[in-house]
C-alpha cells in the first residue's frame, strides 16, 4: 500500500528516480540519513518494506534475514528502506530483477554502505545507484530558480532581478542546512537538528566488518578537523597535524585512513574530485580532492557555530558559503547528467567549481560571498580559464561568479562573466 504525505516538498530526485525506473530493474537511493530518502522513494513507489522499523521488536529486520525473497513481494515499484541492515537483500533484489526481466521493480534506500566480509554482487546492469543529498535552496523555497543550470549549457542568459539575501538570512541558511525537518525552524533554533545529527553518530555503537567498535572520540577528532579545514584540499598528513595541534589526543595515519573510509560510507562528505586535463600536458594539475561535508550545517555543528557566530568571522562565513554552493551545484548537475569538479594547478590557477556536461561542454565557476569580491574573482577566473583552454583547446560554454549577496543576474560586458546570486539558481 502506498502512503502519501500531503506535506511532501517535491525534490529534484523525484524526476531522476522516474527516469531511472524506466531504464533499470532496480535503483538504490543512497545518501546521509535524514536527507529525505525514505519519503522521496515512497512518493515514487507503490508498496514498501521498512527493514529498520522498530515495530514489533524490530521484527521486520528478522523477517528480512530469514526470508529476503518474501519481503520483496508487493506492488511494483516496491521500496525496501534501509536495505543495508540486511546486506543479503542486495543479491535477493538482483535475482528478482533477473527473474522478472523488467524495469522499475525496486527502489532500495540506504544511509550507509554495509560492512560485509563476503563479496556482494555489484548489481551492474540491474541496480543503479543514485546519490541523494539534503535540500538545495531551490527545493527549500529559498531560491527563485530564475536561472537554471540548463540555461548555462544552452547559453540562454537574461538579465533578471532577484530579492537580495541579507547578511543574517544567508548565515541562517548555512547553519540550518537543507534537512527537510529543519526547513521551517526559527533563526534561534536552527543549529539544534544538525548538532543532533552529529550527536547521533557519536553516541551510536558503530562496528567494522570484524564487529569491532569504532572509537567515537576518534570520529569526533576527525570530523572537527575536517570542519576546521572545510572547503580546502587538506591532506591526511595535514589532518593529523591539525588534530595534534588543536586536540589533546593524536591519531595515526592508518587509523585516519580507515576512519575516513568509514565516514565516507555514511555519506557524510561531498568532496570534489580534481578536474583532469590532458595527462601529457606540461601543466601540472593538483590531484587532491577538495573537502566538503554533505551539508555545511554539519561543519557548523562540529564547530559549535550559530548564525551570529558566523557573522563575526567573514573568512569562515565565505568558506561555509562555498560549501552551500557546492551542495546545490552537485544536485543541479546531477539532474542534468553533469558532474562537478574543482581545479588547481602548480601555477596558482584555481577554479572553485568546474561543471562538465555529458556533451563535453564545460562551465567555469568562482564562488564569492559579496559583490565587492567580483573584480578579483573575475581576474582569477579568466587567468585559470586561459591556462586550461591552452591545454584543452576548448573554451568554457560559460564562466560564472556565484555570489551570496546580490540582486541581479547579469553578464559583464567587459569579459562575458555571468554574475549569479545563489538564490537565483535551480537545476
Automatic annotation (TrEMBL):
In this chain the AAA domain maps to 26-139
User: Which part of the chain is the DUF4143 domain?
Assistant: 215-369
Any single Pfam family the record assigns to this protein = DUF4143
Tell me where on the tree of life, at the top rank, the source sits: Bacteria
Question: Which PANTHER family does the entry link to?
Answer: CONSERVED PROTEIN, DUF4143 DOMAIN-CONTAINING PROTEIN
Which named protein is this?
ATPase
What is the protein's species of origin? Mycoplasma mycoides subsp. capri
Amino acid at each position: 500500500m502506498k502512503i502519501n504525505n500531503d506535506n511532501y516538498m517535491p525534490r529534484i530526485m523525484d524526476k531522476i528516480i522516474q527516469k531511472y525506473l524506466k531504464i533499470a530493474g532496480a535503483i538504490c537511493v543512497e545518501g546521509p540519513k535524514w536527507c529525505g530518502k525514505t519519503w522521496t522513494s515512497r512518493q515514487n513507489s507503490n508498496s514498501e518494506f521498512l527493514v529498520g522499523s522498530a515495530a514489533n521488536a524490530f521484527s521486520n529486520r528478522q523477517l528480512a534475514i530469514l526470508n529476503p525473497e518474501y519481503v520483496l513481494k508487493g506492488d511494483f515499484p516496491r521500496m525496501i528502506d534501509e536495505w543495508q541492515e540486511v546486506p543479503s537483500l542486495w543479491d535477493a533484489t538482483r535475482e528478482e530483477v533477473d527473474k522478472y526481466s523488467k524495469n522499475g521493480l525496486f527502489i532500495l534506500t540506504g544511509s550507509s554502505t554495509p560492512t560485509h566480509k563476503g563479496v556482494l554482487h555489484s548489481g551492474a546492469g540491474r541496480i543503479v545507484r543514485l546519490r541523494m543529498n539534503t535540500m538545495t535552496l531551490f527545493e527549500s523555497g529559498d531560491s527563485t530558480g530564475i536561472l537554471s543550470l540548463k540555461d548555462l549549457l544552452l547559453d540562454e542568459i537574461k538579465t533578471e532581478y532577484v530579492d537580495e539575501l541579507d547578511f543574517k538570512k544567508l548565515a541562517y541558511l548555512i547553519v540550518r542546512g537543507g534537512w527537510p525537518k529543519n526547513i521551517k525552524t526559527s533563526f534561534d533554533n536552527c543549529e539544534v537538528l544538525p548538532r543532533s545529527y552529529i550527536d547521533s553518530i557519536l553516541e551510536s555503537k558503530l562496528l567494522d566488518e570484524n564487529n569491532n567498535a569504532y572509537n567515537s572520540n576518534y570520529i569526533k577528532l576527525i570530523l572537527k578537523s575536517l570542519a576546521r579545514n572545510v572547503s580546502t584540499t587538506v591532506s591526511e598528513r595535514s589532518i593529523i597535524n591539525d588534530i595534534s595541534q588543536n586536540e589533546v589526543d593524536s591519531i595515526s595515519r592508518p587509523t585516519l585512513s580507515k576512519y575516513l573510509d568509514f565516514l565516507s560510507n555514511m555519506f557524510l562528505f561531498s568532496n570534489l574530485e580534481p578536474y583532469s586535463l590532458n595527462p601529457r600536458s606540461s601543466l601540472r594539475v593538483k590531484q587532491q580532492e577538495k573537502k566538503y561535508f554533505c551539508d555545511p550545517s554539519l561543519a557548523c555543528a562540529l564547530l559549535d557555530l550559530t548564525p551570529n557566530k558566523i557573522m563575526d568571522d567573514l573568512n569562515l562565513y565565505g568558506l561555509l558559503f562555498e560549501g552551500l554552493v557546492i551542495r546545490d551545484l552537485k544536485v543541479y548537475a546531477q539532474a542534468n547528467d553533469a558532474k562537478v569538479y574543482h581545479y588547481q594547478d602548480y601555477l596558482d590557477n584555481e577554479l572553485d567549481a568546474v561543471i562538465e556536461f555529458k556533451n563535453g561542454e564545460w562551465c567555469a565557476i568562482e564562488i564569492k560571498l559579496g559583490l565587492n569580491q567580483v573584480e578579483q574573482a573575475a581576474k582569477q577566473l579568466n587567468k585559470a580559464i586561459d591556462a586550461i583552454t591552452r591545454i584543452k583547446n576548448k573554451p568554457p560554454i560559460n564562466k560564472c561568479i556565484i555570489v551570496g549577496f546580490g540582486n541581479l543576474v547579469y553578464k559583464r560586458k567587459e569579459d562575458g562573466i555571468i554574475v549569479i546570486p545563489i538564490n537565483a539558481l535551480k537545476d
